[in-house]
Amino acid sequence: RTALTSIGQALTVSNCEFTTRNARAILVDNNNLTLTGSRFTRCGHKKLDGGAVWHTDDKRVITDCRFDHCLAWLGGALYFSKSLYGVSQCEFDDCKSLALQERNAGDIAVYALTNRGSVVVERCVFRHTSLYVGDSDASSDRSMASACQFVHGNLYYARGGHSRTSNCTFHYGRKIDLEI
Question: Which of 37, 43, 55, 50 minimizes the C-alpha distance to 18?
Answer without folding.
Answer: 43
